[in-house]
Write a structure and sequence with these properties.
A six-stranded parallel sheet has the order 10-9-8-11-12-13, with helices on both faces. Strands 1-5-6-7 form a four-stranded parallel sheet, with helices on both faces. The chain is globular and about 65 Å long. The protein has helices at about 20-25, 70-90, 105-120, 135-140, 145-165, 175-185, 200-205, 210-215, 235-245, 265-270, 290-295, 315-325, 335-345, 355-365, 370-385, 390-400, 400-405, and strands at about 1-5, 35-40, 45-50, 55-60, 95-100, 125-130, 170-175, 220-225, 250-255, 280-285, 300, 330, 345-350. By secondary structure, it is an alpha/beta fold. Residues about 1-15 have low confidence and may be disordered. The chain folds into two domains: about 1-200 and about 390-405, Glycogen Phosphorylase B (Rossmann fold, 3-Layer(aba) Sandwich), CATH 3.40.50.2000; about 200-385, Glycogen Phosphorylase B (Rossmann fold, 3-Layer(aba) Sandwich), CATH 3.40.50.
Length: about 400
């Protein structure tokens, strides 16, 4: 029996479940009993539900504002600790799955996972998606806190993460590049299982792109899609400027799906460059709606700034584009992106520079047949190597025999 303590604070409620948590949840299709523990800012009290076929305990996590925000969240986390402990008194769980997070979630969820691990002697899986340095850089670039506060919070997080990795039975880095990063931190390779990003093919293949093209009047246009965060550290200015160059000689639209603290600046830049009417900032949508926006496009774009903390990342959006047969333009500086495009032949690699990005987009826009071939190759590669069904069987093979035997 497996309990992924998959705790997330999502300002939009419970409509987003991290992919790696969904993959673990797919163990239910192999006969395992899985329970998710999710935090939501929209429920008042604890609720039991079923999400994607998984038994789920949803616990409240108030957003909080001002100087009392941290106190309110801390109280909610303490309530959750009590709820999870009560579950453990009633049921037996063989595995706890915990994903890396930021404070205060990291502290309270880490404390909970370690205490349940020690008391009940179950297997603790700890998943790491991003380098520890990324939280500090994101805080500094976002500018929401002073350098001293940001550095202190990140220092505390590093201590907790290292403790969790040392105490966990299995550490799960998301991607080979992240494993290399953890090896540099001194984590034993024998206790690591690499879990790359994956895609729920069943959900993606049922996407309806035509409804989006009709709603946003995209019929007759070549459509480029970006799906993801629009925060300052993503530096999406470079995409807007590259698209402005492309638009000079091509009838194309850019579909921007997502939200973030830099969105207003991006809209203003589009207006300054004279391409505001050709860029659609459609906002944030629930996880289940995103595939339809990708299906409506002809090309997917995945640009990750070659900053130190992004170099170990494993971008999900490019896999989602490929799952729907869309050729991808991705920058080659990110090792995982370079590896995926080279292995799959599902797109073109460009340098993280305006002219190079614009050239990559134009190549796909002008050579429709080659673009379709790339899209099909990418989709085939995803189905063979990165579907949830494939990845969940890889995880099961690595689980201790005592867990597999129930």
């Amino acid at each position: 029996m497996i309990l992924p303590s998959a705790v997330l604070h999502n300002k939009y409620g419970i409509s987003f479940v991290p992919p790696e948590v969904e993959i673990i949840g797919h163990l239910s299709s192999l006969g395992y009993e899985v329970t998710w523990v999710l935090s939501s800012g929209v429920v008042i009290g604890p609720e039991r539900s079923t999400i994607n076929g998984i038994h789920t305990l949803i616990v409240p996590l108030r957003k909080g504002v001002g100087k009392f925000a941290f106190s309110r969240k801390s109280i909610d986390y303490l309530r959750k600790i009590g709820l999870v402990r009560s579950i453990f008194r009633k049921e037996r769980f063989g595995v706890i799955f915990l994903r890396n997070d930021v404070l205060p979630a990291l502290f309270f969820d880490g404390l909970l996972a370690l205490s349940m691990h020690k008391k009940h002697r179950n297997i603790l899986l700890f998943q790491i998606e991003n380098p520890m340095e990324q939280n500090l850089e994101s805080r500094l670039i976002g500018g929401s806190r002073s350098k001293i506060v940001s550095s202190t919070l990140s220092w505390i997080e590093r201590i907790i993460v290292m403790r969790l990795m040392n105490q966990a039975d299995i550490v799960i880095p998301v991607g080979a590049s992240m494993k290399d990063h953890l090896l540099e931190k001194g984590i034993n390779s024998k206790k690591m299982i690499v879990l790359p990003q994956g895609v729920d093919m069943e959900r993606f293949l049922s996407a309806d792109g035509q409804s989006i093209r009709t709603k946003y009047e995209l019929d007759g246009s070549k459509v480029i899609v970006y799906s993801g965060k629009m925060d300052k550290e993503r530096n999406l200015d470079i995409l807007i400027r590259a698209f402005a160059d492309v638009r000079k000689n091509n009838d194309a639209k850019l579909l921007m799906v997502g939200d973030g603290n830099d969105k207003k600046n991006l809209i203003r830049l589009a207006e300054e460059l004279g391409v505001a009417s050709d860029i659609l900032f459609v906002g944030w949508f629930v996880q289940s709606k995103v595939p339809s926006f990708i299906a409506a496009a002809d090309i997917g774009v995945c640009l990750v700034p070659p900053l130190k903390f992004f170099m170990k990342s494993s971008p999900l959006k490019m896999l989602e584009y490929m799952a729907l047969g869309k050729p991808v333009v991705a920058n080659l500086e990110i090792p995982e992106q370079r590896r995926v495009i080279q292995e799959s032949e599902g797109g073109v690699l460009v340098e993280y520079e305006i002219k190079s990005i614009a050239k990559g987009l134009e190549v796909l826009l002008r050579d429709i047949e080659s673009s379709k071939v790339m899209g099909k190759k990418g989709q085939s590669w995803i189905m063979k190597t990165r579907s949830y069904d494939t990845l969940v069987r890889q995880i099961e093979e690595e689980l201790p025999q005592s867990v597999r035997n129930g």
